[in-house]
Design brief:
12 helices; 21 strands; elongated; 7-stranded mixed beta sheet; about 400 residues; 7-stranded antiparallel beta sheet; alpha+beta
């Protein structure tokens, strides 16, 4: 059996559903999962960090940092906020402009599905792509649904299957394989927004300890919380810096990002000089961390016995703690995939292929990766919207 549709969208995630909501009638969205928007559902602790008030091109990584500008400008965070407000979905801001649902992330999924269906799109779940080809005029896809193979022809094909992160949800490199099949390059991909690991598990005794830090690596710096784990380091600051870290590189942690500790210790020396140095430090840093650092920093003696020079040396070490991770937790826990379909083969205003008219790539499948904090979802909304608009404009 062969059926014709206007647009075949591979992937019922954030970008695919957004595209379907704007591509006009005749769109078919397929996904191998049994439910749409699974990554949306689990994001933000089940409340979905759906965008960021400060989203802009500077919050994205790509081999071409200018590529994302057009889509982000044409469909902004304010446009998506207006959409969810029209659907009566309450939201609130947490730190650093991060916006979350007041209720559940499933509200966002339901909204996107409703918008797609209102636009005339069909949704086929538990559907597998067997093969895809282009005959010079149309795309021809063989799908398997409920054990039955169906052939679909389409004028347009949208790659919205995401990256390799969280394989337990079925993530694969399918979009990259199809892109290469049709002549596109794919940049190096690697796990991003991911905890970093150390082979000798040096922080196992500190597992669960967290504190605000400034994490720096390869010219990037993020000031948020770090969390010590059995295997290494996690927390927002570490997830952010992981996108810039490479094997063999050193990260630097500033354990006193506000720069107040030196003054605090000097002041305490006047009134608490007889107290042990580690005891006083433990009033400003987690006690377990102070104990861990004590041998390497020679933290011994009373505070009153420490000269200004000695206190300065201690603070310098605490503000420049150099660590060399041996790896990361990998795609298993990575929130996103860095790299992807090279932007040089795509039109930035429409996300359409420069090589094959009617082929589009959107969302995480493309070499545009957002920071932690709702930015990757904004890229999904923006890239999905511009692709949908371009498809609809052709009628």
């Amino acid at each position: 059996m062969t059926s014709a549709v206007a647009t075949l969208i591979l992937g019922a995630g954030a970008a695919g559903l957004m595209c379907a909501a704007h591509a006009g009638p005749g769109a078919l969205v397929i996904d191998h999962a049994s439910a749409p928007g699974e990554k949306i559902r689990i994001s933000g602790g089940g409340r979905c960090n759906f965008t960021n008030l400060h989203a802009g091109p500077e919050n994205f990584l790509s081999q071409n940092p200018h590529f994302c500008k057009s889509a982000l400008a044409r469909y902004t965070q304010w446009d998506f906020i207006d959409l969810i407000s029209r659907h009566g979905i309450g939201w609130h801001e947490k730190t650093l402009g991060q916006l979350f649902c007041d209720g559940r992330a499933t509200q966002i999924v339901a909204m996107l599905v409703a918008e797609a269906r209102r636009a005339g799109a069909d949704l086929w779940l538990s559907t597998r792509l067997v093969e895809i080809a282009h005959d010079g005029h149309r795309f021809r896809a063989v799908l398997e649904r409920a054990g039955i193979r169906v052939t679909i022809t389409a004028r347009n094909l949208v790659l919205a299957t995401g990256g390799k992160s969280i394989p337990k949800m079925g993530a694969t490199g399918l979009a990259y394989d199809i892109a290469r099949q049709f002549g596109h390059d794919v940049t190096e991909t690697r796990p991003a927004l991911v905890p970093l690991t150390f082979s000798d598990a040096p922080f196992a005794p500190l597992s669960g300890t967290a504190l605000p830090v400034r994490a720096t690596c390869n010219g990037a710096a993020f000031e948020e919380a770090a969390l010590f784990t059995h295997r290494g380091l996690s927390g927002p600051a570490i997830l952010q810096i992981s996108s810039f870290w490479r094997e063999g590189a050193t990260i630097t942690l500033d354990l006193d990002p506000e720069g107040a500790l030196y003054g605090a210790l000097r002041a305490a020396r006047q009134s608490e000089g007889r107290r042990n140095l580690t005891t006083v430090l433990g009033q400003h840093l987690p006690g377990k961390l102070v104990t861990h650092l004590a041998p390497s920093l020679a933290l011994a003696g009373n505070l009153g016995d420490q000269s200004d020079a000695r206190l300065g040396a201690i603070i310098a070490a605490l503000r420049g703690w150099h660590l060399k991770p041996t790896g990361s937790e990998g795609y298993r826990t990575a929130e996103v995939t860095l790299g992807g379909i090279a932007t040089g083969g795509l039109e930035s205003a429409t996300m359409e292929s420069r090589h094959l008219p009617g082929l589009f790539a959107i969302g995480e499948a493309v070499d545009v990766t957002g920071w932690l904090g709702g930015y990757s979802f904004q890229w999904a909304w923006s890239s999905g919207w511009v692709a949908g608009q371009a498809i609809a404009a052709r009628g």
